[in-house]
Write a structure and sequence with these properties.
With 309 residues, the chain is of the alpha/beta class. It has a single domain, classed as 3-Layer(aba) Sandwich (Rossmann fold). The chain has 18 helices and six strands. The strands form two sheets. A four-stranded parallel sheet has the order 4-3-5-6, sandwiched between helices. A hairpin with a 2-residue loop joins strand 1 and strand 2. Helix 13 crosses helix 14. The radius of gyration is 19 Å and the shape is globular. The structure holds adenosine-3'-5'-diphosphate (A3P). The site of adenosine-3'-5'-diphosphate has 19 residues, from helix 3, helix 9 and helix 15.
């Protein structure tokens, strides 16, 4: 695994105990000093926990189910703060000279900064790397944090890394990278816990992927209440329909089909961003010893905090 790990992790760095892409260095200061606004709406999460799903839900609640406006690409409506830190833009541009990339790709921090209020901001940053004004409580934007059970998150991350980052190892080795905190934004457990511990200090709504799967209308109502919005029963039903897996999968504004098409070509692989949307795939995919290790860590990290998946 070491040779492979070193190859796959070329360019990863560790910042405050979290694995980050090397490009983060170029944006660290800008993010630290990012001017937060009290009316910003942030979605924070560990990757593959239902971020895109939550973004589409929150954007539509705030914009009164403006499904016409929601045809604009999600990355433009609800940009990803540190996206440009994930890759080297110059390399991307050289590989696709014919394509015009938006500033949301070339300089995502600047792009987010200049968005009109209320700004919708996605990030996967751990709490300790959020802009200073949020950490210190100087600004109190609304933050929605979405979490998902670790084993399903790992499976989803595995497919993501195959599709978008060129991972070519097997699933067992990928689980070891996940457990060994050798993937972007790991450690998973501390990522969740650090936000969970801030619940009393931040203006934060904590959501779970599993709850969205079980009762999306309830989560829509809870989120609307958090955002000071009132939706009729009909609106809740319409939004839940818009957000269901089958509709999201074919919605070109949210399914990243253009980026996936480029990636499929580069990595010669099939797949889609909105992939299976299931809970419990780990039962078929993970070995018993891997399940035990995930369960042991989850128990060790979460049991004192009543965080149950
Ligand atoms: P799977 O790979 O398990 O299918 P993120 O947006 O944080 O990257 O999360 C992606 C995960 O959310 C993927 O999980 C994706 O399929 C799932 N997802 C996206 N939209 C969904 C929906 N409407 N219903 C259920 N799962 C959804």
């Amino acid at each position: 695994i070491d040779t492979f790990t070193n190859e796959f992790r070329k360019g990863y760095i560790t910042v405050n105990g979290f694995s980050m892409p090397v490009g983060y260095r170029d944006f660290a200061e800008k993010i630290e000093n990012f001017e937060v606004k009290d009316d910003d709406i942030w979605i924070c999460s560990f990757p593959k926990t239902g971020t895109t799903w939550t973004q589409e839900m929150i954007w539509n609640i705030v914009n009164n189910l403006d499904f016409e406006g929601a045809k604009v690409q999600l990355v433009e409506r609800f940009p990803f703060l540190e996206f440009s830190a994930l890759f080297d833009y110059r390399v991307l541009k050289a590989a696709h000279p014919e394509k015009e990339f938006s500033q949301s790709v070339s300089n995502s921090v600047e792009f987010v900064k200049d968005k009109p209020s209320p700004r919708f901001i996605k990030c996967h940053l751990p709490f300790c790397l959020l802009p200073r004004q949020i950490r210190t409580g100087e600004k109190k934007p609304k933050i929605i944090y979405v979490a998902r059970n670790p084993k399903d998150t790992c499976i989803s991350y595995y497919h993501h890394c195959q599709l978008l980052e060129g991972y070519r190892g097997n699933f067992d080795d990928f689980c070891r990278l996940f457990l060994g905190n050798k993937l972007n934004y790991t450690p998973y457990w501390d990522h969740i816990l650090d936000f969970w511990k801030q619940k009393a200090h931040l203006n934060i709504l904590f959501l779970k992927y599993e709850h969205m799967k079980a009762d999306l209308p309830a989560v829509i109502k809870k989120s609307a209440a958090f955002l000071d919005k009132t939706l009729s029963e009909d609106q809740v039903k319409t939004l839940a329909e818009h957000l269901n897996f089958a509709n999201m999968k074919v919605n070109p504004a949210v399914n990243y089909e253009h980026a996936i098409a480029r990636s499929k070509k580069s990595f010669n692989i099939e797949g889609s961003f909105i992939r299976s949307g299931e809970i419990g795939q780990w039962k078929e995919r993970m070995s018993d010893s891997m399940i035990q290790e995930f369960n042991r860590l989850t128990e060790e990290k979460f049991s004192d905090y009543n965080l149950i998946f």
